[in-house]
UniProtKB/TrEMBL annotation:
Residues spanning the signal sequence: none
Protein name: DUF1931 family protein
Pfam families membership: DUF1931
One function term, GO molecular function aspect: protein heterodimerization activity
Superkingdom classification of source: Bacteria
Bilayer-spanning residue ranges: none
């Protein structure tokens, strides 16, 4: 299945929320040019999780994707917990709108699954920030024009 190119919909969160997560979790500064790359990586991973969840529901002969269908690992659970501790509040609607840039799912998200998207998005964001810090411990500011985003994106595809 092809990934969406540059989306026509809004972003998963505000730039300030993105900057706060990277600063608070990984002591990293970001610039506005990083926001688009960040949003693309997190949206792609969220969509991947939903595709796997859809397959899980279908394997159980259901069209409704329940929260238990989502492949949330222990590590992602920990990152979701860290996101909750930070306290930002993400809204469901911008996340659903951003996912509209991808092919529609065959299944329907249960209300609980849909309402959990902000925390999952936040957990993925925390995981991304922590990955930057782990791979580039000396980095102070992420730069969109460097190879950093390409390397991190590849790593995220490998482990999430």
């Amino acid at each position: 299945m092809e990934r969406a190119e540059v989306g026509s919909h809004g972003a998963l969160m505000t730039f300030d929320q993105f900057a706060d997560i990277f600063r608070d979790v990984a002591s990293l500064g970001v610039v506005r040019d990083d926001f688009h790359r960040f949003d693309d990586v997190v949206t792609a991973k969220l969509y991947d999780l939903l595709l796997v969840a859809q397959e899980s529901a279908a394997a159980q002969h259901r069209h409704i994707v329940e929260p238990t269908d989502l492949p949330i690992t222990r590590g992602l659970q920990e990152n979701i917990g860290l996101f909750r501790e930070l306290g930002p509040s993400l809204r469901v609607d911008p996340i659903v709108e951003r996912l509209a840039d991808y092919p529609p799912l065959d299944g329907i998200l249960a209300t609980e699954t849909r309402s959990g998207l902000p925390d999952i998005t936040g957990g993925l964001s925390v995981a991304l920030a922590r990955t930057f810090r782990t791979v580039y411990p000396e980095l102070r500011t992420v730069r969109a024009r460097t190879t950093h985003w390409s390397v991190i994106s590849t790593l995220v595809d490998l482990y999430l």
